[in-house]
Amino acid sequence: MPDNAQLSALNPITDQEQNRVHEPTDVWSDTFAAKVVVQDFNLAETYRTQNCDWRWRNANELYQAWVSQKYWEGAPKIPRASIGVFVAFEQIESMLPKLLGEIFANDPWFEAEALGATTPDQARQWRLLLHDQLDRTRVREVFRRCIKSALLYGNGIMKISWVLREREHLEWLPKMQQNVQNGRVTGFRRVLDKQTKRKIENRPQLEYVSLTDFYIDPNCFSPQVTDARYVIQRKLVSVDDLIAMRPLKEYKIPADDARLFEWARNKPAVQGDNTKSSAELYRMGFWQPTIDQSVDPSAARIEILEYQTDHRFVLVANREHAILNIPNSYGFKTFYDVFYADVLDRFYALGICDVVEGEQRLQVALLCGRLDEVSVSLHRPLVKKMGVKVPQSQNRVKPGQQWEAENPKDDFVFLDIPNITASAYLETQASELRVQKTTGVTDLAVLGTPSSGGNSAARTATGVGVQAQASSSRLKYIVENIEDTFIEPMLNDLVKLNQMFPPIGSTLGDTVALSRVSLSMRASAKMQSRMALLQTFPLIFQTMANPALVAEMAIEGKALDWEELFRVLTDMTGYRSRGSFIRQLSQEEMKARQQPPPEEMLRMQMQRERIEGQERIQGQKLESQSQSEREKQYSTDQTDDNYAMIELAKAIMAASKNGEDR
Prior knowledge:
By secondary structure, this protein is of the alpha+beta class.
């Protein structure tokens, strides 16, 4: 029996609560929050049970091509043909790789556009950050499950959240330790040193949400979650996970573990559990989601209803009381929906199984009917004359069988079986063509070959190209819907979360964190300008690098940004290692760049040698000229000396003569 807390959650809201409109900033009481969540959940579950769960169980049956075993009437031990035909499986598994290939055709697979005063370099940093974060969340696998759910059931749900926590983890670091014997070091050995370190996790998290665990406002008028008043995710959370939330002041977790174990033993079931178990049932297995498959008490699970609006976030445990009742700090619902074929004014869409069900059952009936006819032809019914005694065990024909009769030709006659299903395979081919027209996944698009039976349009290359283009346009339309309503809203919300919780240790500064960017996809037609730019880039590059244009820009005080040109080139080609194109020069390279080129150095060396030669010749001339002048001067000086000696001798002789005279 439910306790008082659960009864209070199921009781209608009071007259006072009915006559009050809560503002986004108003505080909800825990009792009112529990009533709103539980009763809104009951409304959403009732609507989904009546309209969708039976379709999803039917989709599981078609995808796995399950056919119940039939027996011949009056012969319960003689089986009839019961062979499944994988029409839905073939269409889903053929379309899924095509869609994923289009979405992740480029690397990076999305683009960041700068808004307002934000620079292209800041937008580029945003793209690198988000690309790295999404890679860590295994984004391709999450997308694959969501898109497969959309193809199978009609809708696929993804959830984004932010992980901000500090946790301890052990690290084993190697180090060398001395071996000491008798007080002497005899050697060293390698040991592992256990160290406990604290690690801060601050990152986004993507999560695939099973459609059977997702409940939405029945009044939602579009396949986009943003148009719903509320959404609810039903989860089964283990007891130890709830115990780990006790230290957080926002959570109201009972301090008594026994109460948590009681909740785990009495967790309620929903119709969605039967939808989940049907996937195993059609494989001749058994599985019940609410049964805990562990003997560990801490692994026992408790039902948690996560209720979200744009302004409120509530967790209700076991439909009894609110364990978390806070405003929605994100400001938006964190669920995103991908759909296959939407139904106007409704949230739940059509899946491939919905549109090919009739054709698959027709093909199963044709195949099994044809095989039953072949079986009857191989084992034709026997008509015997009245009065002829044949034991019951001998009624069926088998090798080596013997019957006794006076007139065998008249006493025993095998019925002639008309070939009624001779055209069964032609009908099957016609059914396959109708399926391909419905889904757009044709043999020509998937296998590169026309359908069996052929058509007149496949006789020429032009006709084949038109058919392939038509099939591609069908898939392209689905890809564009996925991008516009599923991926791009998630990417832009991820930008908001990064601004709310700036990544620790990121290269993003305050300027970038406060910048405005818009994230868009590359796979759809709106990104085809990238290919056009890639084709015209060589001509544009030659024009911009023209020396005359560069000189004219220098006159105006402007210069060409080579780094930006290389970024444009790497963005177009999808080359991720951008740092290898442009790098900073080393000091040695800077000195080498400051030296003149080899031709100039050779010319300067020749000029220097010529000047040195001229100086050497001029020096030789000057030296020769100086030698002549010295010789001439010497000759003059010698002559003067001789003249002086003569004069001196004359003076001496004159003096001698005067003395003799005296």
